[in-house]
Amino acid sequence: MRFRLLPILFSGFLGLSLVAGCGDDAPGDAGTSDTGRADAGATAERDATTTPDATSGADAGSPRDAASADASAPDGGSIGGPDAGNIPDAGAMCVDTPLYTDEDGDDYGVGASVETQCLLPDETVAGLGRYTDDCGPTDAWRNPGAAEICGDNVDDDCDSVDGTCPTTNSADLDIPAWDCVTGSPPNNVYAWALFASGGSYFEDNGCFVLYEGLVDEFYVSRVNLNRRNPPANCNTSINGCTCPSLDNWPSYDRRLYAFTRLASEPCAELRIIDHGGESQPVSNDCRKYLYQLHYYDIPYTYVGGSLEVAERRVALFPQVEIACASEQYPQLPFASLLTTDWQRNSGFQKM
């Protein structure tokens, strides 16, 4: 009986020893009770940060790759920090990119590539663009990725045709009932251009309102923008535009337009041809068609099909101008009548 109990007692003692031994490896004790093991882990971590593969490969020492690795750390850690062993996402690596001469800064150039650089996804190079086939090399709006300005009879997206304006029924539009002066603008107004003084041509406080009339459709309407009757101080500089024609010349009121334009000077004049038809271009590199003012029954003009298009239009062409296009006759010159800046609505809310 005594000899039979010994194996049982021995096996019980061995089991207790094994359980006690397992307690040394408990996760909560890894960094405290087992100093040697913690030091070994720290050494391994330090070694990992100094090996070439720990960052971005053989070129990890270059400034570009160091910056990419630093920016890709999930918690903002830098090289050598807690996340130093994480390989940066491939999207943060530079890629050899052919570049083209880009005069207008829209990332589109012309002709063959002039050089190749290793660029990050959002990196730009002054004077050079990533893409070619720009049909408007000196016009920052026009390129193969541009939105069309319908109604200006200019090909903006390089497909050889002008865009067609949507045939929207005004009853379907949310046209803001606001005069640019009284109270705050409605939430669907993105921007407005107020002519506090109409000069000798228009009544004071006329304006244009740029708004989202339907979901992802932006329009501009004229508000209280009426000519003085009769126009004061008429002279030959605006012959046949806002003033009655002089010297027996017929009135060419169709020369009167509103444009969005660059803030910089000079800006090339716009010209139309007498009896040249309805399809004459009424935009150029620095002036973009906004409204045809001699038609008083036009309730609005279509601007674009997204908030991004409206934002780009206002950013690239921050001024609104009322001007008379020139005719081929010297008696009918170009005349810039009024200019003001767009004002953005801080309370704009997307539909």
> Order of strands in the sheet with the most strands?
9-6-5-4-12
Secondary-structure-derived class: alpha+beta
Q: What fraction, in percent, of the residue positions are helical? A: 10-25%
Rg, Cα atoms, Å: 35 Å
Q: Tally the helices: what do you get? A: 4
Cα separation of the termini: 91 Å
The average pLDDT is: 76
Main β sheet profile: 5 strands, antiparallel
* Relative strand content: 15-25%
Query: What is the overall silhouette?
Result: globular
Low-confidence stretches: 1-88
Question: What is the tally of beta strands?
Answer: 12
Reading the helices and strands in chain order gives HHHEEEEEEEEEHEEE
What's the short story on this structure?
17% of the residues lie in helices and 19% in strands.
How would you characterize this protein structure?
The protein has a domain of 175 residues. By secondary structure, it is α+β, with helices and mostly antiparallel strands. The protein starts with a helix and ends in a 7-residue tail after the last strand. It has a 5-stranded antiparallel sheet. 17% of the residues lie in helices and 19% in strands. The N terminus is likely disordered.
